Amino acid sequence: MTSRGTPSRFLQSVLQNGVGRYVCQLKRISIVFSRKAQSSLGVREFIEEGVVDYAKKNPATVVYVSPQSCRIPKIVAEYLNGNVREEIITSKTAPQISDLLTKLTDQSGLDVIRIRKPFHTDNPSIQGQWHPFTNRPPSIGPIRPQKQQEAE
Amino acid sequence: MVFLTLSCWIRSRGPDRYWKVQEVLKHARHFRGRKNRCYSLAVRAVRRAFVYATKARRLKKRNMRTLWISRIAAATREHGMKYPALMHNLTKTSVQLNRRVICDLAVTEPRSFLSLAKLARARQQEGFRAALGDGKEPAGVFSRVVVLQ
């Protein structure tokens, strides 16, 4: 896990989200679970109680519930920038699944990789970035228009 | 007659070799030469790379600090002071800025850095006057230590 071998990115927000209005970046949530298996017990409990409240609290996110015969229940979260995240929820309890859903809701869709710096500015310098002539006095004086010659 | 022993002699020697090899090679893809393709060379190179990465986490802190110090020293010399004088007098005036912040100020905010240098120089002059003048004059403005409640 070298820093050159693994991808990294700078800290950013998607299109300055939150400066004006906040738009939830989670587009779609699909809950894939099975009707009978033991691993989906928590999921089924969550779907009985918590899903409708979650969907009402997040009107910007579309929630799909798809019971299939599958061995591992999953949550597939799709974000507005196109990233897809799959979380496996075998043998999780309903409160754990709702915590996971709040975590997915709060995330922007940017990749979960190393962030190079924990800060970012678009305008790092207010007084002007240093250059070799910042602290040097000027060699010639202020430039003034030349006095008109009398011969003219 | 059916020959059955022949099929018993066939053994599978481990079906996962490809994926185990790819796990190592994926960390070596950006290397130079045959180390990025051949497994035996790549294993050694990847292990060295990980060891260097682990050791470098301590070195990075040291290197960044020396970088900040050299940048601050260069900036103070532009204003006619030296780095040890600046830092010592800033701590005496209870300006608790660390080297990273002072370096960023020197790069992006040159006038604020100039004011810090002037503050340090004033405190330095007060220190000289207190040491040489032998107590008859009151200590200067910047020598008064502010006690925050």
TrEMBL record, chain A:
<comment type="similarity">
    <text>Belongs to the mitochondrion-specific ribosomal protein mL43 family.</text>
</comment>
<dbReference type="InterPro" id="IPR036249">
    <property type="entry name" value="Thioredoxin-like_sf"/>
</dbReference>
<dbReference type="GO" id="GO:0005762">
    <property type="term" value="C:mitochondrial large ribosomal subunit"/>
</dbReference>
<protein>
    <recommendedName>
        <fullName>Large ribosomal subunit protein mL43</fullName>
    </recommendedName>
</protein>
<feature type="region of interest" description="Disordered">
    <location>
        <begin position="120"/>
        <end position="152"/>
    </location>
</feature>
<keyword id="KW-0496">Mitochondrion</keyword>
<keyword id="KW-0689">Ribosomal protein</keyword>
<dbReference type="GO" id="GO:0005743">
    <property type="term" value="C:mitochondrial inner membrane"/>
</dbReference>
<dbReference type="GO" id="GO:0003735">
    <property type="term" value="F:structural constituent of ribosome"/>
</dbReference>
<dbReference type="InterPro" id="IPR039927">
    <property type="entry name" value="Ribosomal_mL43"/>
</dbReference>
<dbReference type="InterPro" id="IPR007741">
    <property type="entry name" value="Ribosomal_mL43/mS25/NADH_DH"/>
</dbReference>
<dbReference type="GO" id="GO:0032543">
    <property type="term" value="P:mitochondrial translation"/>
</dbReference>
<keyword id="KW-0809">Transit peptide</keyword>
<dbReference type="Pfam" id="PF05047">
    <property type="entry name" value="L51_S25_CI-B8"/>
</dbReference>
<feature type="domain" description="Ribosomal protein/NADH dehydrogenase">
    <location>
        <begin position="35"/>
        <end position="108"/>
    </location>
</feature>
<keyword id="KW-0687">Ribonucleoprotein</keyword>
TrEMBL record, chain B:
<dbReference type="InterPro" id="IPR035566">
    <property type="entry name" value="Ribosomal_protein_bL20_C"/>
</dbReference>
<dbReference type="InterPro" id="IPR005813">
    <property type="entry name" value="Ribosomal_bL20"/>
</dbReference>
<comment type="similarity">
    <text>Belongs to the bacterial ribosomal protein bL20 family.</text>
</comment>
<dbReference type="GO" id="GO:0005840">
    <property type="term" value="C:ribosome"/>
</dbReference>
<dbReference type="GO" id="GO:0006412">
    <property type="term" value="P:translation"/>
</dbReference>
<keyword id="KW-0687">Ribonucleoprotein</keyword>
<keyword id="KW-0689">Ribosomal protein</keyword>
<dbReference type="GO" id="GO:1990904">
    <property type="term" value="C:ribonucleoprotein complex"/>
</dbReference>
<dbReference type="GO" id="GO:0003735">
    <property type="term" value="F:structural constituent of ribosome"/>
</dbReference>
<protein>
    <recommendedName>
        <fullName>Large ribosomal subunit protein bL20m</fullName>
    </recommendedName>
</protein>
<dbReference type="Pfam" id="PF00453">
    <property type="entry name" value="Ribosomal_L20"/>
</dbReference>
<dbReference type="GO" id="GO:0019843">
    <property type="term" value="F:rRNA binding"/>
</dbReference>
